[in-house]
Amino acid sequence: MKYKILVAALGIISGAAVFTGCATSGGIDTQIDVAMVQHYEKEYSYSAATFNRTDILMEQVRTKSISQAAGATILNENITEYNGNIYEYLLINAFNSLNYYNLGNLEEALVEIRKIENKQKLYVNLYGDLVLSKDEEDYSALENAGSYMSLDMGQIYESFPREPKESDIYRDSAFAHYLAALMYLQYGGGSPELHSKQYKALWSQSNQASLDDDLSIPKGYGRLDFIALGGRIICRHEKELYFPDYDGDGIGDFIPSLRIDGVTIPAFRLKYVYPAIFEDAEGHVAFPGTRISKIHVVLSDGRETNLELVENLDLAVQKDVASKAKKAFVRSLFRSTLKKASAVSAAAVGISSTPADFRFLAELAAIASLEAVDLAETADVRQAKNFPSVIYGGGFTLESGLYSGKIEYFDKNGKCLCCEDFKDIQVKEGIPVIVESVCLD
Question: 246 by DSSP, 3-state: which?
Answer without folding.
Answer: coil
